[in-house]
Amino acid sequence: MPTGPQATDNNAPAPSAESLREEMISELKRSGDLTSPDVEAALRKVPRHEFTPGIPLEKAYSWFEAVPTKLNEHGVQTSSVSAPQIQTFQLEQGRVGTGMNVLEIGSGGYNAALIAEVVGPTGQVTTMDIDPDVTERAERLLKQHGYDQVHVVTGDAATGVPDRAPFDVILVTVGAWDIAPAWVDQLTEGGRLVVPLRVRGLTRSIAFVRHGDRLVSESVRVCGFVPMQGADEHDTQVLLVTGTEEIGLKFDDEVMGNPSDLDNAVKTPRFETWTGVTMGMQEPFDSLQLWLATRLDGFCIMAVRDDLDTGIVAPANKWFSMAAVEGNSFGYVTWRRLEAGDGSKRMEFGVHALGPQAPELAESIADHIRAWDREQRGANGPVFAAYPVGTPDDQLSGERVVTKRHSRITISWPPTKSEG
Fold it and tell me: In sequence order, what E strands does 54-129 have?
């Protein structure tokens, strides 16, 4: 039978909700996601675990984990309480403050309670969701915990909530492919729209500021969200390279390339090249994703089914690899581990390509990676702007224009290191 310190450790009481909440707040401050005293006070006040009943305390207060609250018939998550990290930085992106009128799109209850704490008794909070099960749950939990002032609406996010507008902040907590005109119309001049926007297959939480009928980004953060349902939901287009589900190239808009051409591409030898661009294993490179999405016309995301993998391609990440199609060839970004002389671990970016033009395509992608390394690595990243869909080309600026159903999104990069 164990004795001594081991017995004491095994019989130690489980951490309390209060201690786990404080640990969560400490992690958020350490990561730099939490800087606002008002948001910190709200995180300390609202009992997250009581908005995620049936979930172990450790999971409820994990600073980087979302809590699923509803699955569809296929077991796919359709609603969740977002990770504290994302909820925190979105509140700070929106600069939510005392007395503001805030609309939350995508309901769960907990985030609306946080917003209510931050805006205080002089502010207003509306939370909406298309799923009546979700809004019923949110309303019940909010009332149980004394947040009767939060207005809960069941409806399609595309319409907004006109009778509660104008809003100082609209906080979207579901993945969106487009920006609904109602969101712009119902936002105050100078107000902020924080939205997890998918552009060219990449999702970023973007804090836009309204300037007339135009939105301009103020901050951009990497994120992941359950996709929006309703009138503005949008599916990715998938090109199956081999005619099976082994290799899928996912396009956000129209599919580039001819499937039969790429079927032939996989019959050619794989061309591989390495860029000489290295990074630490934990160093972020999200701006590289956006750089390639801006620079490559045929940009897409490659995914490989593990159970069908025959080794035609060999990406470092089978589930998400930056890729591009050009004519009858396609290429993708990968990486390999390196060990420095001091024993530290690094990785080097490389490019693999298949098809008749594989060498040219691979070297082109590699050159773009090297250009990012020279000009934008460590910089602040691009600026996004959103215009009404009818805006003519001569009124747009930026290296890439993406036209969606309601809006035209532009991506502009700041002056390069050599120019700045």
Answer: 67-71, 77-81, 101-105, 124-129
Chain segment 273-285, per-residue pLDDT in tens: 999 999 998 888 9
Rg (CA), the chain: 23
Are residues 163 and 51 located together in one domain of the fold?
A: yes
128: nearest Cα among 102, 99, 103: 103
Q: Of 222, 254, 281, which residue sits at a domain end? A: 222
pLDDT digits (tens, 9 = 90+) for 219-267: 999 987 666 677 667 778 888 888 789 999 999 877 776 667 788 888 8
Contacts with 342 (C-beta within 8 Å, 6 or more apart), sequence order: none
Q: For the residues 26-50, what does the mean pLDDT come to?
A: 96
Q: What is the pLDDT of residue 5?
A: 43
Task: Looking at the structure, tell me whether residues 244 and 343 fall in a common domain.
Answer: yes
Count of domains for the chain: 2
Domain match, 184 and 142 both: yes
Which is higher by pLDDT, 227 or 339? 339
- Residues 186, 57, single domain; the answer is yes
Residue 232 lies in a domain: no
Residue 76's domain spans which residues?
Answer: 17-222
Note whether 189 and 173 are within 8 A (CB): no
Catalytic pick among 62, 80, 82, 219: 82
Given the DSSP bridges, would you call strands 151-154 and 167-172 parallel, antiparallel or unpaired? unpaired
Residue 19 designated active-site: no
DSSP secondary structure of 226-249: PBP-STT--PPEEEETTSSSSEEE
Q: Is 135 exposed, middle or buried (0-12, 13-18, 19+ CB in 10 A)?
A: buried
